[in-house]
Specification:
Strand order of the largest sheet: 6-7-8-3-9-10
Largest sheet: 6 strands, mixed
Strand content: 25-35%
Distance between the termini: 42 Å
Number of helices: 8
CATH superfamily: P-loop containing nucleotide triphosphate hydrolases
Order of helices and strands: EEEHEEHEHHHEHEEEHHEE
Helix content: 25-40%
Radius of gyration: 18 Å
CATH topology: Rossmann fold
Shape: globular
Number of domains: 1
Length: about 240
């Protein structure tokens, strides 16, 4: 598969060691690791928000030098926080994800994420799960080549966990888009094509979901290990 996202030597001092990675079009990649491992730092560096060292290209274009409107077509970043304090409508929040106004695109996303009953409500009055759907719609709005999603499945009820995975899979495959999403629930990684495991600021495993879940690297990073009926704490030596 052809790489869409390519990073060389991206780093954040004291949080993320120099890191190389690539994600191909049509590839749905999970990013996992214990708290403080560097998942958010990696996503923010790839998005150019905290890119202090290294280079990130999307489709061969350098994200730092791309004009703002072009950047919106290249990538979109969904932060882990769902806090929205502005008393503006959900419809207007979605529109913020577009480089130019496009009411038809906003309407498509309202239908896709079942937001019709929420669209005119102030976003600061919505539940956390409802805001998550609005923010995902904003991230999808410009049809970027790469989606960088920090905990997109958090705060969602079971239907919306499954529906979001379905939307990401269709978005990923139909548009040959690269998607990198951080997760906390290890059982959810089986819905992904590939898993990156981050620990202590560096990628320590990269492979198929079942391979990474059964790896020594995962057991060491999380201090848990896979057993027949679930997970158990790995006792200290």
């Amino acid at each position: 598969m052809t790489p869409v996202l390519e990073a060389r030597g991206v780093a954040v001092p004291n949080r993320l060691e120099p890191t190389d990675l690539s994600c191909a079009g049509g590839e749905l990649v999970a990013l996992i690791g214990p708290n403080g491992a560097g998942k958010t730092s990696l996503l923010r560096a790839l998005a150019g928000i905290e890119l202090e060292e290294g280079q990130v290209t999307i489709g061969g274009e350098d994200i730092v030098s791309a004009p703002p409107a072009r950047r919106m077509r290249l990538l979109s970043f969904l932060p882990a926080t769902r806090a929205l304090v502005w008393p503006i409508s959900a419809c207007d929040v979605i529109s913020l994800g577009l480089p130019t106004p496009d009411r038809n695109r906003v309407d498509e996303l309202i239908e896709l994420l079942e937001l019709r009953l929420l669209v005119h409500r102030p976003v600061n009055s919505l539940s956390t799960g409802e805001r998550s759907r609005v923010l995902l719609a904003r991230a999808l709005a410009a049809c970027p080549q790469t989606l960088l999603l920090d905990e997109p499945l958090s705060n969602l009820d079971p239907y919306w966990v499954l529906r979001t995975l379905q939307i990401l899979r269709k978005t990923d495959s139909s548009a040959d888009r690269a998607i990198l999403a951080s997760l906390h629930n290890l059982e959810q990684v089986r819905a992904f094509d590939r898993v990156l495991l981050v620990d202590k600021g560096r990628i320590v495993a990269d492979g198929k979901p079942d391979e990474v879940l059964a790896s020594e690297a995962l057991a060491t990073a999380f201090r848990v290990e896979k057993v027949t009926d679930g997970w158990r704490i790995r006792e200290r030596a």
